[in-house]
Amino acid sequence: MLLPPLGLYVHLPWCERKCPYCDFNSHETSIVPEQRYIDVLLQDLREDLPLLQGRTVDTLFIGGGTPSLFSASSVEKLLQGIKNLVPLSATLESTMEANPGSADAEKFCSFREAGVNRLSIGIQSFDDALLQSLGRVHNSDQAHAAIEHARDAGFTNINLDLMHGLPEQTLETAEKDLQCAIASGPGHLSWYQLTIEPNTVFHKRPPALPVEDLLADIQQHGEQLLAATGYAQYEVSAYSRGGFNCQHNRNYWSFGDYLGIGAGAHSKISFADGHIERYAKRRQPEEYMSPGAGGFVASTRTLELNEVVGEFMMNALRLNDGFTLQQFGARTGLSCEQLEPQLESLCRRELLQRDGDAICATGIGRRFLDSVVSEFLPD
Prior knowledge:
By secondary structure, the protein is an alpha/beta fold. Helix content is about 40%, strand content about 25%.
């Protein structure tokens, strides 16, 4: 089995404030143990080096939490340590997440100089009332300023994270938010609907969200506006101009491999004999930084064959262009013949469409993607 491309994910788990909708592994703090954590991250990476199996790392993504809480010197130490340990692609896409509340021009310049070449800014909304309802620590002025700081620092590859379907949001305010994002001219937009997840403040105390018909109108109008202004949708919630697709995330959706370091980070690694393993690191930061004899890994499991099929579909069908049967075979090591009954049924119901060996979800199929994917999941 030919091994797929490999990305590296680095998790920095702290935030200035935990947002009420957030179910990520993030922890509110006023003091971040930067130097200690960077040292532990690099030791974690050292122990995982055999999993590279001689491969080059094609993409790097520093996520959180709020990575921009870290000082420029800590980020520089982290990136230099990674460069010293692993072979990096000459065309490495190196992404770092940042929040406007923890961003300034000098810090962005230092991140750029350290080797970050793609910045993902968590805007969520340009409406001050909506930002307050989301528990964000920044306001709209800071959001606009962060985008300008990124440009002044030399970033040409910028993503903005923007939510819709927010508490008491209207069609007009949703379009205004999107227009503000488009006017700032990023190469990439992650535009996605707020969902209420378990174990969040919003799950315990649900806000008043737009009704289903309004959510559908916001989605439809937003997609039309993005298309009219040159943003091509290539994944359920990802839109880009001029070749600014997020290569790291495309690797996830294409069932590529990724190595995760940091508290709660996950890895998916393929092996030459065809089996695929998943790893999860210790979730709590303090436990992660003091792993003792047990090491950094909290759990390991080998995917069963039927799980491989389901996970491939769960990711690949999020992409507008879907996948080819050749890609399925190359990434899973499995025969394509086992897919035929489901493919035939879903195409007949116009939830999937097929052109030769290329398969993707139809417009209706994307609306009911969970149901489509469930056809490939184990009982």
